[in-house]
From TrEMBL:
Name of the protein: GTPase Der
Top-rank taxon: Bacteria
Limits of the EngA-type G domain: 1-161, 195-370
InterPro entries linked: G_ENGA (IPR031166), GTP-bd (IPR006073), GTPase_Der (IPR016484), KH_dom-like (IPR032859), KH_dom-like_a/b (IPR015946), P-loop_NTPase (IPR027417), Small_GTP-bd (IPR005225)
Organism: Paracoccus cavernae
Keyword annotations from UniProtKB, A to Z: GTP-binding, Hydrolase, Nucleotide-binding, Repeat, Ribosome biogenesis
Molecular function (Gene Ontology), one example: hydrolase activity
Family annotation (SUPFAM superfamilies): P-loop containing nucleoside triphosphate hydrolases
UniProt cross-references to CDD domains, sorted A to Z: EngA1 (cd01894), EngA2 (cd01895)
Role according to the record: GTPase that plays an essential role in the late steps of ribosome biogenesis.
Subunit structure, as described in the record: Associates with the 50S ribosomal subunit.
Binding site for GTP 1: 3-10, 50-54, 113-116
Binding site for GTP 2: 201-208, 248-252, 313-316
Family: Belongs to the TRAFAC class TrmE-Era-EngA-EngB-Septin-like GTPase superfamily. EngA (Der) GTPase family.
């Protein structure tokens, strides 16, 4: 979903995703980053990425970064829904986006929003002039035009489904040479593309102390920037040589100066920040680690598909460090099996000890989260796995796993084309996922794994 601020993208996002993930506001640019959600329209299921708050400025500021984020989203999307405001008419910003979309997008659907009743008719006519075909008249707020949107999407969905399933095996070899994105390093952190982290944990775990320590000891690149939600801010800092943007919520309501300490955040605020983070640092108080609240927070980060680093704080207070570390590792494995292999580091936010370990763990988790595995290697791996341990044959009919491909990164997502997918036991899925993790060295990231039925 692409469009200039205030055309109604968040409203449409909410309508399609059905959960109130996005924040709607009259002020332009309230929503500032990419948001993803599971969308549905009739029987169609898709991922909606809302690139709200796009600006035209091409520089290294927040706007520049948002534009690059959006371009990346456009490149990855199967279909771009370009939203314009039928009431406001076509602006220079709309034309600018139309130009980007014409160059980069695979498919564009033009939607003229706020056209409830017969409002905005002249804006709809202007929208024809963008050269992106006939605009759909919709009203995100009132739910009008969703049937037309559905009818436009269905043939595209069929087409992509067909491509993903049938063509993939045939183009295997070419795919590896051509579109295997292993050499795409654009996700690597840089001054203009800082690694986005959130530090979350129960009250008094030491979050504020840690963030202040990081900001205080390292070079602060940019001050508090108005964040993605009304109450949030982020700071961009050079953390041991890596530009990182640390999301904080409710931290600086009063637009405190950079030098002032960050205020405390609530757990709920922290959970919101998770959506905008690439890597989530779950900070534990080493005296009371892995309590219910910590487990919920870590699980939430996993469910949201973020890379996770567990940091046990207040390590300076610990007397018998080796013994304690063993206990922590054991508890971690037992209580958070879904985060198997995620890095566990010990730190002292107070003294700064262990911050280098934390830094390295964040970098590594981020790298794994962005990992793309070569399709050829994946399929070799699949045949080894199925030979070593063939899938069961329920009622004498053998399940065939035909082909595996990685459809997405951040976090890595894989699809296996198979027969009788409804008969595949969970234990067999786990065998494959654990194998993937181990054989392709992907600890500390959620892995999405689905089967697609091929009759
Ligand atoms: P975004 O910046 O593109 O995400 O835009 P928002 O979704 O925040 O919407 C901006 C404003 O337009 C809000 O005040 C919405 O209530 C309003 N809006 C969104 N969709 C419609 C619509 O279909 N009709 C009308 N009249 N207003 C809408
Ligand atoms: P928050 O609620 O998670 O933001 O926690 P704070 O940063 O406010 O820290 C809570 C308390 O723990 C404060 O009294 C801190 O001084 C203390 N604290 C934080 N980090 C450490 C640490 O590494 N070692 C010790 N000994 N105390 C710490």
């Amino acid at each position: 979903m692409v469009g200039r601020p205030n055309v109604g993208k968040s409203t449409l996002f909410n309508r399609l995703v059905g959960k109130r993930l996005a924040l709607v506001d009259d002020q332009p640019g309230v929503t500032r980053d990419l948001r993803e959600g599971q969308g549905r329209l009739g029987d169609l299921r898709f991922i909606v990425v809302d690139s709200a708050g796009l600006e035209m400025v091409e520089d290294d500021s927040l706007q520049g970064r948002m534009r690059r984020l959006t371009e990346r989203a456009v490149d990855e999307a199967d279909v771009c829904l370009f939203v314009v405001d039928a009431r406001a008419g076509i602006t220079a910003a709309d034309e600018y986006f139309a130009e980007i979309l014409r160059r980069r997008a695979k498919h564009v659907i033009l939607a003229a929003n706020k056209a409830e009743g017969r409002a905005g008719e002249s804006g709809v006519l202007e929208a024809y002039g963008l050269g992106l075909g006939e605009p759909l008249r919709i009203s995100a707020e009132h739910g009008e035009g969703m049937d037309d949107l559905y009818r436009t999407l269905v043939p595209l969905a069929d087409q992509f489904e067909a491509q993903n399933i049938q063509q993939a095996p045939v183009t295997d070899v070419e795919l590896d040479e051509e579109s295997d994105v292993e050499n795409d390093e654009s996700w690597r952190p840089s001054a203009t593309n800082p690694l986005q982290i959130a530090v979350i944990g129960r009250p008094n775990a030491g979050k504020s102390t840690l963030i202040n320590k990081i900001i205080g000891e390292d070079r602060l690149l940019t001050g508090p920037e108005a964040g993605i939600t009304r109450d949030s801010i982020s700071v961009t800092t050079d953390f041991m040589g890596t530009p990182m943007r640390i999301f904080d919520t409710a931290g600086m309501r009063k637009k405190a100066r950079v030098t002032e300490k960050l205020e405390k955040l609530s757990v709920a605020d922290g959970l919101r920040a998770v959506r905008f983070a690439e890597v989530v640092v779950v900070l534990l108080d080493v005296d009371i680690p892995f309590e219910q609240q910590d487990l919920r927070i870590a699980d939430f980060a996993e469910t949201e598909g973020r890379a996770v680093v567990i940091a046990a704080n207040k390590w300076d207070l610990e007397e018998d460090k080796p013994q304690k570390l063993n206990e922590l590792r054991e508890a971690f494995e037992r209580l958070l099996p879904q985060l198997r292999g995620a890095p566990l580091v010990t730190v002292s936010a107070k003294t700064g000890k262990g911050l280098d370990r934390l830094h390295n763990a964040i970098l590594r988790a981020h790298e794994v989260w962005n990992r793309r595995v070569n399709t050829g290697r994946l399929n070799q791996w699949l045949s080894v796995m199925t030979e070593a341990h063939p899938p069961p044959a329920p009622g004498g009919r053998r399940i065939r796993l035909r082909y595996i491909t990685q459809i997405k990164t951040r976090p890595p997502a894989f699809v296996v084309m198979a027969t009788h997918t409804d008969k595949i036991p969970d234990a067999y899925s786990r065998y494959l996922v654990n194998g993937l993790r181990q054989d392709f060295d992907m600890p500390g990231t959620p892995i999405r794994f689905t089967f697609r039925d091929q009759g």
